[in-house]
Amino acid sequence: MSDAAPIRFPDVRPGEPMVVSGTLFQTYERCPEQAAGRLRGVYGPESRASFVGGLAHRVFARHLAAGPIGPDRLPSVCREEIGASMNPKLAALGLKPSQLEAVVGEVGALYERFKTLGADGFEGAEVPLEAEPADGLTLRGKVDAVFSDGPAGTRLVDWKTGGLGEPEAQLGFYALLWALERGEIPGRVEAVSVSSGERYEEVPTRTGVEEVAGRVAAMVDRLREAFERGGSLPRDAGPWCRWCPLLDECDEGRAARAILDA
């Protein structure tokens, strides 16, 4: 969906340079203080599920770019991808080489489901996007896959290897970033859970994209103000508390995890 007029991004509070990703925006919408922690460099430990998901994403991208991967080749492809960029995560998990067979098996199961999704109109995998809508503010993201839907326009897809969750904020961020960098609003954005087959999709509009721009700008203002004044932001409890690195200092988060684990 092309539109000659550029997307309007609001003015933001001046401050230290800030890089905002779709994950940061989604985190902020769930719990502002958790997002502030990410900007301070406080991250949770690497998990097996995230490692398997990250490796599966690399396999999906390789499939889209170079064609199907046979079962006999999958173990070597996984080892190549791990060696290319994922060795630090492997070390952080403490996984031994002998344990990789089970990991490859999990990735293979996801890959078999992924192959049923089809790839008509495929244009690019792991497409990087970046825009600087205000001085000192960089918006950055990587779209898992880009497809052309003909007259309907460009479709941006985010693969999920677990549950679908609540992808609206992240998809809205990708639509905004695509519009800012490419000068057009995508025809559709969607999240697809490879494991469950769930799908969520939206048809972005100019009004909706500019509304997301306003929410991103408000987030930047609030985070910069908190950093300048040395205060904290609201903590909102939910399922995301289970993996939050701020859990030890958060009563709300510990209470939420106790309920989730009950």
Describe the structure in your own words.
The chain is α/β, with parallel strands linked by helices and 262 residues long. It is 46% helix and 18% strand. Strands 1, 2, 3, 4, 5 and 6 form a 6-stranded mixed sheet that branches. The N and C termini lie far apart (47 Å). The model has no long low-confidence stretch (mean pLDDT 92).
Write the topology of this structure:
Blueprint: E1 18-21, H1 22-30, H2 32-39, H3 48-66, H4 74-93, H5 100-114, E2 122-134, E3 137-148, E4 154-160, H6 168-182, E5 188-193, E6 199-202, H7 206-229, H8 251-261
Parallel strand pairs: 1-3, 4-5
Antiparallel strand pairs: 2-3, 3-4, 5-6
Give the integer mean of the pLDDT values: 92
Query: In CATH terms, what is the fold-level topology of one domain?
Result: Lambda Exonuclease, Chain A
Unreliable sequence segments: none
Q: Give the helices and strands as they follow along the chain.
A: EHHHHHEEEHEEHH
Biggest sheet layout? 6 strands, mixed
Euclidean distance between termini CA atoms: 47 Å
Beta-strand proportion: 15-25%
Number of strands: 6
Query: If you compute it from the alpha carbons, what radius of gyration comes out, rounded to the nearest whole angstrom?
Result: 19 Å
Shape: globular
In CATH, the architecture of one domain is Alpha-Beta Complex
> From the helix content, strand content and strand pairing, which structural class follows?
alpha/beta
CATH class of one domain: Alpha Beta
Count every helix, treating DSSP H or I runs of 4 or more residues as helices. 8
Helix content: 40-55%
